[in-house]
Amino acid sequence: MAVTIRQIAVVAGVSRGTVDRVLHNRPGVKPEIAEHVRKISQDLGYEPNRAGKILAARKQPLKIGCFLPGVGNPFFSDVMKGFRRAEAEFSDFGITIELSEVKGYDVRVHIKAIKELVASGCQALCVSTIDTPEMREYLDGLIQSGIPVVAVNTDLSKTKRLCYVGCDYVEAGRTAAGLLSLMTTEQLNLLIITGSLKMKGHNERIRGFSRTLREKKVPYKLVEVFESLDNDDHAYQKTLEALQAHPEINCVYIVAAGVAGICRAIQELGLERKLHVLSHDQIEVTCQLVREGVIDFTIGQEPEEQGYRSIQPLFNYFMSDRRSVPDDYITNTVIKIKENLS
């Protein structure tokens, strides 16, 4: 049975408060009494529990910078809810979060925003960013300087990031293709609309989707691929042009954001329910379009859990004096159709 603070207090002949102060290195105890309590605790085989370690660490506040390309992309609001939920849970232990959002996928904009987080005193980072050589080199430099980085929502190739917290994008793409193969055996003329070709997760979805169509021997032709840049207006215009130029398109695969703009173009052309339309994530507008039958199904990835779980490993990492290296945390792939959206 584990030795308790109360048992140490009885043997040492002091109060539980005195034992607590000694074991958590708080002032207010005479040196000789502190030494006596430490010896008794050692003789009894006392091992400080995790809560004790956390309480001792309260003297060392930890500021975590969270960076997202979230401006104009409502998906990231749930990731931010997860960040804030973790901040509230760990606030008693000195954890604070500074959030930075930008619009789009310009590497210079991303690096500038992350630099500002570091300059503000952030000792660790959670980032959802582009997977380019320049970004990887910059983040590895920060990691080398002692700032741990968690990749949240989309991973980073060949970096020394601490861990990845997010969905399995290949599985998500495979799931979309698997469901589609159950719905049709006709020749598919595909329009694929991704968020950015610089985002690893978006590319992995397309790879998983295409691979599974081939494995399922679903006949398809890729008519066009373009980037929505997570911008509804841009997505609307590009979709309108693609569908007008290629009336043979009978399936639209929406890999990331821009859903409202894409579906507005489909509806304006009177093509709702005449095309297979597949999407990802469970933002409000997407769910409504599934209810209306414009989108056949959408595939979620638990964004709030991603935000929450990306703070946890950093907390544990610092509690262990950087000895405990966390594993990746993969959120669930969640299939949503009209009948289960509630």
Largest sheet, strands/sense/barrel: 6 strands, parallel
The number of strands is 12
Write the CATH fold name of the largest domain: Rossmann fold
CATH architecture of the largest domain: 3-Layer(aba) Sandwich
Query: Which stretches are low in confidence, meaning pLDDT under 50 for 5 or more residues running?
Result: none
Specify the CATH class of the largest domain.
Alpha Beta
CATH superfamily of the largest domain: Response regulator
Overall morphology: elongated
Measured as a percent range, the helix fraction is 40-55%
Helix-strand pattern: HHHHEHEHEHEEHEHEHEHEHEHEE
Our estimate of the beta-strand percent is 15-25%
Structural class: alpha/beta
Give the termini distance in whole angstroms: 47 Å
Put simply, the count of helices is 13
Domain count, please report it.
Answer: 3
Radius of gyration: 25 Å
Strand order, sheet with most strands: 2-1-3-4-5-11
Mean pLDDT: 92
Strand and helix map with partners:
Elements: H1 5-12, H2 16-23, H3 31-44, H4 50-56, E1 62-68, H5 76-90, E2 95-101, H6 107-119, E3 124-127, H7 133-144, E4 149-152, E5 163-166, H8 169-183, E6 188-194, H9 200-215, E7 220-227, H10 232-245, E8 251-254, H11 259-268, E9 276-280, H12 284-291, E10 297-300, H13 303-319, E11 329-330, E12 334-336
Helix pairs in contact: 1-2, 1-3, 5-13, 8-9, 10-11
